[in-house]
Amino acid sequence: MAGLMEVFLLKDRVSRDRDNIFLILFEKAFILISLLIVLLIGVSLNLPGWGVVALVGASLGPIVYGHYYVIYIRPVKKKQNLDVEKKKGKTKRK
């Protein structure tokens, strides 16, 4: 699992390639929509107010990390694996 500093470094590396403001806005909006869905699930389960807050608070970290993983970390990891496989293929052929 990537550490917090690695996540920010990977995000910075990918955001250089993706400086489109609309993608950044859609990313933040999708995180907020996901948290809204969790909030609505808590309300629909007739949880008390503190229960809804605890549910949203407990899901905040996994939702944000999940979005960062899908958008920023996974593409860089795939690229690194492809680079490693290409290097292994070159060394085996020689």
- Head-to-tail CA distance between termini: 34 Å
As residue ranges, the low-confidence spans are: none
Tally of alpha and pi helices? 3
Helical amount = over 70%
Shape: elongated
Order of helices and strands: HHH
Broad structural category:
mainly alpha
Task: Give your account of this protein's structure.
With 94 residues, the chain is mainly alpha-helical. The protein is built from three helices and no strands. The chain has helices at residues 4-17, 21-44, 49-93. The protein starts with a helix and ends with a helix. The mean pLDDT is 79.
Descriptive key words:
single chain, 94 residues, mainly alpha
Outline of this structure?
The protein is mainly α and 94 residues long. Helices cover 88% and strands 0% of the residues.
Task: Chart the SSEs and their pairings.
Elements: H1 4-17, H2 21-44, H3 49-93
